[in-house]
Amino acid sequence: MSVSEATLKALKQLGLTEYETQAYLALVAGGQMGASDVSTKSKVPYSRIYDVLGRLEEKQFIQIKRTKPTTYIAKAPTEVMRLVRLDWEGRLKESSKVVIEELQPLFEKETKVTPRDVWVVHGRASILAKSMEMLDSAKEEVLLSLPSFDLSTEDIDTIVERVLLVKARVRILTSSITEALKDMIPEKFEVRTRNRVFGVGLVVDQKDTLLVLAGGEESDEFLGIYSSHAIFADMSSSYFESLWKDSTPL
Predict the structure, then answer these.
(1) How far apart are CA 184 and CA 106, in angstroms?
(2) Which member of 138, 194, 226, 233 lies 3.0 to 4.6 Å from 247 by CB, making a disulfide possible if both were Cys?
(3) Do residues 204 and 176 lie in contact, with contact meaning Cβ atoms separated by under 8 Å?
(4) E-assigned strand segments in 91-199
(5) Which residue positions in the chain have pLDDT lower than 50?
(6) Model-level pTM?
(7) Which of 108, 246, 137, 115 has its CA nearest to residue 202?
(8) How many C-alpha atoms does 79 have within 13 Å on its Cβ side?
């Protein structure tokens, strides 16, 4: 099976070895097969094929039908990506908890962090990570303003997916929202629209604030301003409220 270099690189980044990639691609193209056929089509040595297929099952890329003879079936790429994502998110959440609980107190002690700190967050990935951290910590209220509320814009879709899981009170201000998303919004959420909403702003529990500025097309040109100071949150919330009053309820 001939695939692009981009796909081969992506599979490697997802944790597959060269032999595992070859075997998975052979099963994607050829349907269910026995180990011998997988070895022939993928050119993975027969002496290694059972070990390779076993690891693919562990990584949730294939399923094994333990009949006589045993057959191997590739899982759909959409299912594989969903399973990989859930696995990564679970491990990341657990690792983040362990690291933060032990190292954050040391960091704050040594750097004498105070509630008055204002941080500049550089790059799209760092801004997205800070947004997810803030949404995960929300206990009382989330104020979110963004140009469009949909699942088609890179990064915005990730924020939208995560905010839909928030248990706290959520108010969203946007210039447009897709029909598909209207049915997904929890009843307790409040959404209002106005003609124009500039940039992305996020205030969580009246204490954490993140304002996002896009400086250009490149990822590293994105700039975020984060603060945990109450005054910064008050100013941002007041501006949000002024726009909210002049907006149209969904």
Answers:
(1) 41
(2) 194
(3) no
(4) 118-122, 141-146, 169-174, 190-193
(5) 113, 151-152, 219
(6) 0.54
(7) 137
(8) 10
Determine the topology of domain 116-249 in CATH: Endonuclease; Chain A (3.30.870)
3-state SS assignment for residue 172: strand
Can you tell me the distance from the alpha carbon of 7 to that of 153, in angstroms, rounded to the nearest whole number?
22
Q: What are the structure tokens assigned to 75, written together?
A: 């899982």
CB neighbour list of residue 224: distance below 8 Å, 6 or more residues apart: 120, 121, 122, 126, 127, 130, 210, 211, 212, 213
Paired tokens of 160:
């939208």
β-partners of residue 19 are none
Q: Which of 210, 214, 174, 207 is nearest to 190 (CA)?
A: 174
- Token reading at 240: 């949000």
**CB burial of residue 143 (10 Å; 0-12, 13-18, 19+):** buried
CATH code of the domain made up of 5-75: 1.10.10.10
Quick: pLDDT tens for 121-171.
888 788 888 888 888 888 999 998 887 765 445 555 567 677 777 888 889
| Close Cβ partners of 95 (under 8 Å, ≥ 6 residues apart) | none
Structure tokens at 173: 């201000």
CA distances from 8 to 31, 35, 82, 203 (A): 19, 22, 18, 40
